[in-house]
Every structure is written in C-alpha cells, then in structure tokens.
Amino acid sequence: MVSIREASQQDLTEMAAIYNQAIEETVATFDLRRQTLEERQTWFEKYGGRHPLIVAELNGRIAGYSSLSPFRDKEAYSNTVELSIYISPDFQGKGIGNLLMKEILQRAASQDHHVVIGGITGGNAASVRLHEKFGFEFAGCFKEVGYKFNQWQDVHFYQLIIRP
C-alpha cells in the first residue's frame, strides 16, 4: 500500500536519485548536471509551512515526491505556487502521480493558495494528462526557452484556480 506523507531528511538520498535520473534522462527538469546531496539538502530546506514537500512510499521505497514552490518572489504572488511531481522510473504508470497530485492539491487548498501552476516540457503527454485530469487548464507556451539534449525545449504552462 502506498503511503503519502511529509518528506523527511531520511528520504533525501532516494529523492536525489529520482531527481538525478530525471536530469540525466528526461527533459522534465532543465538542470543539466547531477545534483550532490549537499545541493539537494539546500533545496530540501526551502520547504515547509505553505510550501509542502511530500513523498509517496511503497514497500519501504520512495516511489516519488511532490512539492509546492513559490511561483515568484513578489508579494502579490504569495497565493500562487508552482507544482512539481517526480516519479521513480520503477513506479511510473502505477498511479503514484495521481496520489501525489490529489494530496498536494489538498495541501494547496488548506494553505489558502489560489492558483497552482504546472510547467510541462513539450512532448510530456503523461504529465499533461495528469494535470488535465485534476482540472488544470492550458494557460500558454514559452517556446524554445530551454536547451537540453541538443535541442530547444518548449514549456507549456497549465494552471488550476482553487475555488473555496
């Protein structure tokens, strides 16, 4: 059974492995080099309170994680957050993304966020389906804003307005 819970320090190594796989093999992130545990520790410390970081655990392994990050640093954006979800390749296609999305959106609502933004690299149909399943709507595309794997990448933005 999958357990969704707040991420802990003990999860950092597995979360780093998931993220580093995404760096090396996908365009889900525009980081271009593996992250050290120290770099991921600095990242980890940014979360808490209105910006949760959660994990999906299955059979003692971290299957994936999700977070809400500040969208922009200007005060008027304080109720808008950016969503991230990363799933281990070993657990993709098993409903982990659905579970993480449901929980992170509940946490967004409980923290009184108004808008959740998802940035999806062009061609990631599975991520588009997941976002649309939860009511996200296409908001626009930034063309050729990232260069990875020897080609320009577009980023499609999806947004969900949380209604009280």
Shape: globular
Backbone CA Rg = 15 Å
- CATH third-level topology: Aminopeptidase
Strand order, main sheet: write it out. Answer: 1-2-3-4-5-7-6
Structural class assignment:
alpha+beta
Tally of helical runs: 4
Description:
The chain has 164 residues and is of the alpha+beta class. The protein has a single domain, classed as 3-Layer(aba) Sandwich (Aminopeptidase). Helices cover 28% and strands 35% of the residues. It contains four helices and seven strands; from the N terminus they run βααβββαβαββ. The protein has a seven-stranded mixed β-sheet, with helices on both faces. Strand 4, helix 3 and strand 5 form a beta-alpha-beta unit. The longest helix is centred in the middle third of the chain and has 15 residues. The protein is globular, with a radius of gyration of 15 Å. The model has no long low-confidence stretch (mean pLDDT 96).
Quick structural overview:
With 164 residues, the protein is of the alpha+beta class. The protein has helices spanning 12-25, 37-44, 96-110, 125-133; strands at 3-6, 53-58, 61-70, 80-87, 115-121, 137-148, 151-161.
